[in-house]
Structures
1.
Amino acid sequence: MIGREKEKKELEQLYNSGRAELVAVCGRRRVGKTFLINEMFSNKFTFKHTGLSPEEHKKENALRTQLGHFHDSLKEYGLKNSERPESWLEAFSLLRALLSEKDNGTRQVVFIDELPWLDTKRSGFITGFEAFWNGWGSARHNLMVIVCGSSTLWMQNKLINNHGGLYGRITYEIYLTPFNLGEIELFFKDRGIELSQYDIAQSYMILGGIPYYIGYFKRHLSLAQNIDELFFKPHAKLKDEYTRLFRSVFSNPEQIMLIVDALGKRRMGYTRSELAAKIKTSENGKLTDSLNALIAGDFIMKYVPFGMSRNKTHYKLIDPFCIFYLHFVKEQDILNEDFWEENVNSQPVVSWRGIAFENLCFNHIRQIKDALKIGNVASHQSAWVKRDEGKDGTQIDLLIDRKDNIVNMCEIKFYGGDYSVDKGYYRTLMNRKELLSHEVSKKTAIHNTLITTFGLMQNEYSGIFTDVITLDELFE
C-alpha cells in the first residue's frame, strides 16, 4: 500500500486499544477509504457490509432493498434461521445476535461501508444504529466498528457532530485525502510506470491524485495516450465519471452540478450572491447546504481574497478532475478519440495548464511553505485581484500572508524549461509589488516568489525573485 502511513498506524493502535471503538473514516469518493480498511483488516472482519448506491435501486423501495441486502450480508457471515428485517432496529438486533454468537473474547471488527447510502428517506437508520451502539456496542470492549462514507457532510452532520443520541460517540475520526505529488510518484514507481515529474504533475492536474483514477494508467502508454484512454476513446473509463460522482454522493446532484459548472468558469470563484445569480436560484438554506457539502468533499474551497472584507467570501472550484472535465470533456458532443495526443500543445491546453498548475499549488501549500522554510509560521493563502477604474488592473496568482511580517507574492508558471524574465515582465512585477505595498502594513516586507516547473534562467532581471520553488520541492 502506497502512503497512508499515518492512517495505518492509527488504525493499528485502535485495533489494539482494548476498548470499544467507533471509528469514522471520511473522504471523497474514489480516494481509497475501502481499500485502506480492506488492506488493514482483510482477514479480521467479523462482519462487513456495503450500502447500495442510490443509483442502483428504485427509490420507492429503497428501505426494503437496503434491508434485504443487509440481511444477505448477515447470512454471508454466519447468521442462521432469521427472517429479513422490516426495520433498522430489527436489522441491528440481528447484527447483535450474530456478534454475540461469534464472540470468543478476541477483537471483533465490524466494517460498514458507504454508511450514508443506508440512511434512505424516512428509514429510521440513525435510530437503529444509535440503539445498536449506545445500548450494546459501546460496552463491548472487544468490539471495533468502522464506518465509511463518501458523503462527508452526512458523516459530519449525522454522525461525527451528531447532537442527538450519537453525540460524542465517535471514538476516532480519520479523513483520507487524495495523494499528493510525491505519493503519486511512489504509486507509479510501484506499478512500473515510468513518467517524468513534469508528466506526473500533469496527471495530478487532470486526475487530482485520486488513486482509483490513476490506477487505470497503463505502463506501455505515454501520459497523453493514457488520458485519451481514460476520457476520449470509445468506452473510456472516466467519460461518465463526472455525473456518476455527484449522483452517487449528493442527494441533490442537479443543483450541485450547476454550482460546480458555474465555478468552473472563473478562476477566483464567486461570492455567494454572485453564484446564486449565475445558477438562477435563491440565497437560501438549500444553497448553503449544497456549498457546505461541496466544501466538505474537497470539491470547492471557501476563502476571502486578499484585501477584501469577510462579506466578500468567495467559493472556488479546486477539484482537478472537475476542472479538467469541464474544460475538455463536458461540452464535446462527439469526442475525438485521440484528442489529447493531437491537442497536447494547442493553445487551449497550454492555457488550461496555467490554470491547473495554479490549482495544484493551492493544493500543495504545505510543500510550498516547507520549501520557504516557514512550515511552522501561521499564514493565510489567497489570490489577489485589484481592479483600477479605467485600467486593466492586476492579478496575483497566490499570496501567502504570513504572521512573521512577510508576504510572499507568488508567480506561478508551468513551463517546459527554465523560466526567463524579460524587461517587460520585470516591469510588471515591479508594478504589482508597488500596488501591493499600498495594501499591506508598513512593517510588512514583500518577497517576490516564483513557483515553476524546472527553475529560473539567470539574467539581468532574474534577481526580481527572492525565492524560486520548483517541481522537485513540490514533490517532497
2.
Amino acid sequence: MTKRYENGIFPSSKEGSLKIINTFGRYYKRVLKKRVKKIPLGISGFTCPNIDGRVAKGGCTFCENESFSPNLSKNSKKFFLNPESSENPILNRQLGEIAFQYNSTAERYRRLGYEKFLAYFQAFTNTYAPLDTLRKLYTKALGEQDCIGLSIGTRSDCVNEEILDYLVSLQSEGNEIWIEYGIQSIFDSTLEAINRGHDSASVEKWIKKSKERGLRVCGHIIFGLPGETPDMMLQTVEKSIEWGIDSIKIHPLYVVKNTALAVDYHKGKFKPIDEELYIQLIVEAMKILPSHLVVQRLTAGIGDSTLLAPAWCADKNSQLKKIRAALRAEKIIY
C-alpha cells in the first residue's frame, strides 16, 4: 500500500465532496425504517480458549473482559463451557440472564426512542460452547420483545462449518444475523506479542467462509497495539476491507488493571497511543472505507478506577467530540 504517514504527518485530503459515514443507526434507518439498537449481553459460563488453556494461557495481554462488557454477570467465573462440554448445569441461569439483561436495557432504550433491537452476545467468546447450548441461548434472545436478530462476538478459532450453517438457518428465517470477529491486527508478529493464540490467516479464512454463506460480518480492530506503526494500523483496515467485512469497530488500546499489558506499562515497556495520533488515524481510516461499510464504533473508553492509561480514554464523549470535529474538517460526517 502507499505509505500514508511520513515525517509525522498525514497528507491533506483532496476530496471536495461531503462524505457521510454509514453508521449502524443510519444503516438500519435506511433498510428497516426503524431506530435499531444493540443490547449487550454478558452470560455466565462463557470464556475463551485463550483463557482456559486450549490454545494459549492468560488471555490476550490487554484482556480484562469485564471492562468491555457492562452486562457481564458477576457469577461468570463459577463454571466455564467449551465446545466439548457434556452438560450445561447453568442453562436456566443463562436463560434468565438473557431475559433480565435484554428487557431491562430495552426498556431504557425505548424511552430514548429506539424501536427494535439486536441481542449482542458480547462478553468473552460466544460460540465457544456446545451447539445445543448455543441454539437454546440464541433462540431465547430472538424470542424477546422487539428483538430482530443477533450480533455474536467470537474468535476465528471458535467457529466451524456447523455453527455457520446454523447461523445461516436463523438468517433464512428473517432474523438479522451478524458475526463479529476480533481481527485486532493483520500482522502475526503483533498477534504473537499480544498472546492472541491464532494467526491472521485464521481470521481471513473464517471471515471469507462467513461471507460465502451470506452472513454479515463485523471486524474489530485495535489501534495502538505494541510495536505497530501508523501505516501498519491502516494496513489492517485496508486488508479487512479486502476480506469483505460489512462493518467495522475501531478502538484504542488502553491499559486496565490486572492485565499482562499493565505489567508492561508499569515497567515502561509499553507506551499507549496518544490522542492526537489516534484521531488522525481514525480520519485516515474513514477516508479509505467504502461507502457501504457500516461503522459501529470509532473509539472506546472506560471511566472508572480500573483504567491506568492513557488518561484521555476516561472520557468517551470528549473523544467523540474531537473525532467528529476532525472528520468535519475533512468533509466527513459521522
3.
Amino acid sequence: MRHLTMTSVLACFAILGFSTMGQAGLEHGHNPANTISTDVDHPDSFRHFAPELPAMKERVPPVNTEFGLHVSEIEPGLFFITDFIYQSAFLVTGEGIVVFDAPPSFGERHRSVIEMSAPGVPITHFILSHKHADHNGGGHAFADIDGLTVIGAQTIADSLTANPLRGVLTPTDTFDESLSLTVGGVPIDLQTANFHANDTDVMIFLPDQKFLMAIDTITPGEAPFMNFGATANLDGYMENFETFLAYDFEHFLSGHVAVLGNRDDVETARDYAFDVHDTVYSLWPSFLDRFGANMELTGFENGNLAYRMTIEEVRDDCADQIIDRWQDRLSVVDLWADSHCETVVLHAIMH
C-alpha cells in the first residue's frame, strides 16, 4: 500500500462533495441510491422503513377546528397551534395578543384561529424566533395590523434589510443579546443563541407559564430532522441542550411535528445527539486506514471516490449502531440516522 500523508488526505478533503448513501445497513432502510422508491416491490421501497412508534402516535393531538388546525390552551391565556408539520403559539394578555412565529403553511387560518380563541382581542405584538421563511413567511397575514410591534434580534433585522424574505415581517423593535419585556402584566424573556440559523436564533421564555420556545431543535418523540434539523452550527446545536435545560420549563415548542414537547423530550434528544457524536468519534481512529484501503481498492486512480467510500463506511457503521440502540425509543430513526452520522463525520473532518 502506498504511504498516505495527512497532507495528501487533506488535499482530497478540499475538493470533495458528498451526497449519497452506501450499501451498509440496507435492512434498516438505508438506500444505496439515496432515493426512496415508491414501488412497493423495489428493494429500496418506502415500505422498508419503520412506521411511527405507537407511543408517538398516541401523543398526536386531534384536528379540532374548522380550519384544519389543532389549537389548545396549554396554560391560561397561552395557546398552542399546529398544522401537524409546523407549530406556533400565541399569548392572550390584558393589553393584547402576542404572536410567536407565523409559518406560511398556516396562511390566513392563523388569524382565524386567534380570533376564534380570543374574539375581539387586538393583536399587538409579534415576536420572531428567527428569520427563516418556513417558520415566519406567514407574517404577511399580520402585516395589515396598525401599530403592530414586531420584535426581533438586531442581526435578524439587519439580515432582512439586506435580504428581505417573502412574507417575513421586518422587526420594528430590536435587541442585541437579550430582552425582557412585559405585555399586559405577563413577562417574556428573549435570549439570542446559535443552534440552527446561520445568523441568530432567539429563545422565547415565558416564566409564569413555564414555556420555552426554541425552533428547529428537537422533534418530540422522533429523531431530529436530517442533519440535526439542517443546523448551520453543529457545535451550537450540541452545546445548547444544557442552555435549554437550565430554564425552568414544562412546555417546549420546537416548531415541527404535531407534538408539543416537554423536558423529557429535550433530555432524550440530547442523549440521542451525543450518542451519534460519540459513536462517530469511536470509529474515527479507523478513518485513515479505511481511506488507504479504499485508495488501494480503486487502484490509486480516484481519490475522490475512495474518500467518499470511506465517509460512507464510517457513516453507515455509525447509523447501524444508532438504529439498533434507538429504534424502539424514537420514531423515524431509520429514516434520518445516516444523515446525523454523516453530519458528525463531516464536522470531524473539518474540526
4.
Amino acid sequence: MSSSTKSNSLLDWADQRYQIRGLIEFLKHKEVPIGGHSMVWYYLGGTTLFFFTIQILSGLLLLLYYQPGQDTSYETIRYITTKVPFGWLIRSVHVWSAHLMILSLVVHMFSTMLLKAYRPPREMTWVTGFLLFSISLGFGFSGYLLPWNELAYFATSVGTDSVKSVPVIGQWLLEVMRGGPDVTINTLYRFFALHIVVLPITIFAVIGMHLVMIQRQGMAPPRGHETSPRGMPFFPNFMLRDLLLWLMCLIGLMTLAVFLPYGPGLPGVEWELGLKANPLAPAYPGIKPEWYFLWIYQLLKEFPAHLFGVEGPEAALGLVSVIMGIWALIPWLDRKSRQGLPTPGFTDYGNASILFIGYLTLKAWDLGGGGGGDVLPDPAAVARTCAIIILGVAAVQIAIRVLVYHHWRFTTTGAVLLQIILHGFFGMSYLLAGAISFVLAMGVYIIRYRGRERVFEGAKS
C-alpha cells in the first residue's frame, strides 16, 4: 500500500469520527488580510502563543522536582539547576520564554492599537487580549517568589507593599495577598497556588474565548476596508510561515537560554539563584521589579509621600489605573474609527504611551547616572541621558508618521516630550513638568474642539 493511500485511509478514519475534512476545508478558505500595512503584525499573536506553550511545557518539567516550602523551595531550585541533568537549561528556557512572551504580547497589543484592529465587531477581542496581558503580568509577579531567594523575597515585599495604597481596601488586600501582614511562607504557598492553578485555568479560558472570536470574525482587515481587498490562504501558506517563525523563535530562545542562563544582568532581567531568603537579613540592595513593571516602579518614586492630602503611592496607582482603564476602553472611545474614519489622535495617544513608558523604564535602569558600589547614581544625569534617548526615538516616530502616514497631530506626543524636556534638561520635578504639559495639552484640545464647533455652526447657517 502506497503512503498516499495510507494517509487517505487514516484521514477517512478520522473524518468518520471527527469530521476532520470540514476543519481542513475551513482552514483552506480562511484568509489572512493583505493590504497597505505589513503582514508582520499578524504573526505576533501566534508568536505569543508559541512562547506560552513553551512556558507550560517547561513549567511542567520544573514541577516534577519543585516542592514549595520553607525548607524545600530554594533547595529544590538549587537541586534542579545543579544536579538534575539539563535542569539549569529547563529553568533558563522557562524564564527566558516568560520574558519573550510578555515582550511579544506588548508589541502585539501596541500594533493592534496603532492599526485600529479593535474596530467593530472586534471590541471584545481587544478586551480579551487586554485580559491576557493582565493575566500574563500576574504570572510574572507570582512566579518571581517561587525560588525563595533573597532577590525574590525582597522584591515581592516591595511589590506587594504598594498594594496598601489602594483606597479603603488596601490593607485588607495586602494581607490577602501575603497571607498576613508580612511576606512569609504563607505568601509563597498562595503565590504557588496562584501560579500553577488559578492563573492557568483563567488564562486557558480567556485564550479559548480570544481564539474563538478570531476564528469567527477573522483577522482585522486594513483600516478603511470592511473586508480585505485580497488575502493569503491561512492553510497552508500562512501556517507554514508561522511554523517557520516559531522555529526561528525556538532557535533564538535556546541560544539565549544556553549562553545567558541567568539573564543579561540588567535590573529586572536577571534570575541568578543567589542566597536563600532570610526575612531577618537587611533588604537586598538595589531591588527592582521585572522590566515590565519598571515604569510603575519609577512612577511611584516620582511621587512625593503626600500630594494635596492624598498619599503619594495612592495617587500614582490612581494615575496608572486611569491610563490602563483608557487603554481597555479604546474600542468605545475611538468613535471615528468605528465609522472607518482616520483617527490620528488615538494613533498619537499610542505613540505617546510608548514614549511615556519608555522614559520611565529607562530612568528605572539609572542609565547614564554613573554610581556603583556605595555610590548612588546622579538623578540629574539619569534624567538627561534618558531624555536624549527618548527624544531620538520620538524623532524617528514623528518622521515615520509624517513621511509615511502623513499624520500632523502630535498633541499628546508633544505633551509627553515637553514633560521629558522640562524634567530632563531643566531640572524641573517630574510631576510639575507633567502638570504644565497636561494643562497645555488640554488647552490645545479645547481650542481645537471650539474651532470644530464654529465650523459646524457656520455650515449650518
